Amino acid sequence: MKPPPGGAAGHIAVAQFGGSSVLWFLLNDKKNTPPSVCQPASSTNGIAIDRYGNLWVPDGKANTTTEYAPNCGGAKQTIADPTGEPADVGFSGKNHVYILNLNNHTGPPTVEVYNAATGKQTGTLSDPTFNVLFGVGSDRLGNVFVSNLTTNNVGIVIEFPKGKMPGTQLSGVSLGLPGAPAFDKSNNLIITDWLAYTIDVFAPPYSSAPSTSTLKGASIWCKLNKKGSNLYCGDADNGSIDVYSYPGNAYRYSYTSGLSPSALVTGVAPYPAAPYM
User: Fold this and answer.
1) How many CB atoms lie within 10 A of CB 33?
2) Best label site of 10, 91, 227, 255, fewest CB within 10 Å?
3) Which distant-in-sequence residues (6+ apart) come within 8 Å of 199 by Cβ?
4) What is the distance, to the nearest Å, from the Cα of residue 61 to the centroid of all Cα atoms in its chain?
5) Over the Cα atoms of the chain, what is R_g?
6) pLDDT tens per residue, range 66-89
């Protein structure tokens, strides 16, 4: 491993499902500078950077999630998934980490809850609607949200207040293929519909129609930078990280160096990360 270009002042990590490493780009680099090759990755979907700068990388082949030190650092701990294939990571509070299962060998998919400092499992989030899970995220109040495609092929979002059971379906969210939930400083829900190719923004309490803008390609994982001024989306169709201005979600430019449509760009993680409770 080597430090990402430009050090830790600002960068964005990206995973490719068919790739073997997490790549790190300079943040807001319109010159498309080649990335640094950092942490190993295998069948990786969503990735996430916590408030301390640690990068969390699910390994879909090994059924583990590894926490890496900041700035392209080494492994700190690896958490084995007890039930299935880990596919996304979210955080709330100082030490709560939520690892979403894409598949569960023993039943419907779940989100496993851990103490981030010790790696000890502290709980499980489940819901009767859970069928195909795509992403997990939290708002500024510590509520945890999970996107799910139901058995009726409707994309919905379930809210778990303060990360606790039971969950409640958001009444205003009905999508074709739901992306991973993200939130701005006003707790607006930002989520893609990668069937309709839209970025949808729902205002609390998420019961009314969203504001909608065009998505450049099939993007499940989109995340804001710390300032909340740019939205970064992993684009599997075009092999790129697409950058949109926020709010408004007008397309600005894309990272493409070292990325490939055949490798399927998946999770993105800007550093510094957007704040959460």
Assistant:
1) 14
2) 227
3) 190, 191, 192, 212, 213, 214, 215, 222, 231, 233, 244, 249
4) 18
5) 17
6) 999 999 999 999 999 988 899 999
In 3D space, the residue among 229, 221, 273 whose CA is nearest the CA of residue 250 turns out to be: 229
End-to-end CA distance of the chain: give it in Å, rounded.
31
CA 277/CA 235 separation, integer angstroms = 28
* 125-129: average pLDDT: 97
Q: Which residues pair with 241 in a beta bridge?
A: 234, 255
pLDDT, one tens digit per residue, over 29-62 is 999 999 999 999 999 999 999 999 999 999 999 9
Tokens (6 digits) for 34: 């080649």
Tokens standing for residue 255: 């990272």
Q: Which domains does the chain have, with CATH numbers?
A: 11-271 (2.120.10.30)
Tell me the per-residue pLDDT of 182-223, one tens digit each, with 9 for 90 and over.
Answer: 999 999 999 999 999 999 999 999 999 999 999 999 999 999
Eight-state DSSP code of residue 262: G
Whether residue 218 contacts residue 237, with contact meaning beta carbons closer than 8 Å, is answered with: yes
pTM for the model stands at 0.96
**CA 203 from centroid of its chain's CA atoms:** 20
Q: What are the Cα distances from residue 257, in Å, to 58, 89, 183, 216, 250?
A: 23, 25, 28, 17, 22
